[in-house]
Structures are given as C-alpha cells and as structure tokens.
C-alpha cells in the first residue's frame, strides 16, 4: 500500500472534515499548511499527489500559491475551494495549472473519489525515480547510475538487518539502521520510501513498539517495489 500525500493549505485551521480522509484511508497522509511559508516548506521536502487550497485569500495570493505549487510539485494537481460569492473566479484560476475549483460546502466523498483516481494513476514509476535523481544530480547520468546501483545493494541489506534487529528486539540497532536508510532515500528525494522510513524511525524513536511491525512491513513493501524496478531503471539510463 503506497503512501498518498495530500497537502491541505488552510489558514483558518478548521480542517476537521479532512481528518476523515486519513481515518477512511490509512495510506492517505494529510499535511496541513497554515500559512504560505509552511506550504512552501512542505512543497520543497515532500512529493504530493494532491494539493487542496481551502482558504480565503486575495486573487493574487491564490495565483502565487498555485504557481509555487506547480513549480515545486509539478506532478500534483491543485484544487481550489471557493465560497459561493467567489464562483466568478473559477475561469480565472482554471487557466492556471489547476485541476478544478470546487464550491463549498466541501464534499469529502468527492475528494475521496478524486483520490481513488489519483491512486490508480500516480504511483511512483521508473521514469519518476529517474527524473527525481537526474534533477538532484543536475542531469549527470553517470552519477545517477552510481547512486541507483548503491541503493539497489544497500536498501535490501538494510531492510534485512532491520528485520533481524526487530526479531531480536534490538530496537536501538533497528533505529540506527532505519535512520541511515531514511537519510539515503530522503537525500535522493524518493518520497514514497522516505515517508515510510520516517514513520518507522519516529515509531522506534518514541518506543512505540506495538506499531513497529506494521510500519516496518509498509517500508519493506516500498523497498521491494523499488528494487523490482532495478532493471528497467538501469536499462533506461545506460
């Protein structure tokens, strides 16, 4: 089950209806940004599959945020929530890279349907891994190949070592290895694995051992899925 990252830009901090998404969809992670700086930081460090802009802003502020979101997270569709009296702005915003403008009150079921469609089409694929790393290496293919080969060797070994450490209840060792793994995938910008590694590391750090195995299994699945793409990725680059 791959993580689906949703960014909610909502300055009023009344996002109770959106928490239903995480409750109904355990693999949907909702990040809330309460101001423009928080939104930009989130966009810099996380690859989102959907961005919801639900706040009362001046037209130029909305345009600025949408442009920033499109530039930093070009794969993520943006949906702008509008009050009834703002409906005249719909045509203006949809000229931008905005998938839709929805009128309030918010229909959570509609958002769920949209997420369902996105989940079927936006899983991280070989070309996305390649492009993310090429962006990181400034299109240095040779360096990208070296990094990919290193990851294909190290990540399975680290998962194996974490598994052994957890079986033996050596949680400190498991935390140290998870921290290294998290750093590697985070440096590369692979948000699917990064999110899962963060969840496991955070769980171990706070000694929440009852949920450790579930987080480990999710991370292991993400790593296995990534390694399964080894030949396709390397054949494309070489």
Strand order of the largest sheet: 2-1-3-4-5
Helix content: 55-70%
Q: What's the shape?
A: globular
Structural class: alpha/beta
Verbal overview:
Keywords: Phosphoprotein, Two-component regulatory system. Residues 140-238 form the HPt domain. The chain is α/β, with parallel strands linked by helices. It folds into two domains: 4-121, Response regulator (Rossmann fold); 126-237, HPT domain (Four Helix Bundle (Hemerythrin (Met), subunit A), Up-down Bundle). Helices cover 62% and strands 11% of the residues. The protein contains eleven helices and five strands. The chain has helices at residues 16-24, 36-45, 59-72, 90-94, 108-121, 126-136, 141-167, 171-188, 191-205, 212-227, 230-237, and strands at residues 4-9, 28-33, 50-53, 78-82, 100-103. It has a five-stranded parallel β-sheet with strand order 2-1-3-4-5, sandwiched between helices. Strand 1, helix 1 and strand 2 (28-33) form a beta-alpha-beta unit. Helix 8 (171-188) packs antiparallel against helix 9 (191-205) and helix 9 runs antiparallel to helix 10. The radius of gyration is 19 Å and the shape is globular.
């Amino acid at each position: 089950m791959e993580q689906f990252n949703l960014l909610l830009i909502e300055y009023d901090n009344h996002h109770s209806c959106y928490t239903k998404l995480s409750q109904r969809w355990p693999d949907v992670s909702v990040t809330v940004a309460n101001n423009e700086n928080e939104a930009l930081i989130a966009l810099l460090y996380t690859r989102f599959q959907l961005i919801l802009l639900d706040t009362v802003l001046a037209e130029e502020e909305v345009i600025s945020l949408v442009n920033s979101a499109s530039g930093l997270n070009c794969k993520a569709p943006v949906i702008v929530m509008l009050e009834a009296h703002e409906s005249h702005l719909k045509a203006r915003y949809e000229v931008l890279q905005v998938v839709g403008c929805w009128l309030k009150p918010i229909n959570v079921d509609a958002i769920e349907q949209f997420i369902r469609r996105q989940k079927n089409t936006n899983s991280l694929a070989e070309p996305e891994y390649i492009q993310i790393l090429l962006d990181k290496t400034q299109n240095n293919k040779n360096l990208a190949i070296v990094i990919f080969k290193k990851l294909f060797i190290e990540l399975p070994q680290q998962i194996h070592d974490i598994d052994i450490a957890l079986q033996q209840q050596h949680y400190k060792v498991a935390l140290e290895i998870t921290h290294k793994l998290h750093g590697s995938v985070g440096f590369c910008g692979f948000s699917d694995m990064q999110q899962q590694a963060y969840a496991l590391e955070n769980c171990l750090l706070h000694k929440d051992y009852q949920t450790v195995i579930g987080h480990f299994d999710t991370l292991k699945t993400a790593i296995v899925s990534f390694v399964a793409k080894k030949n396709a990725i390397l054949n494309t680059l070489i």
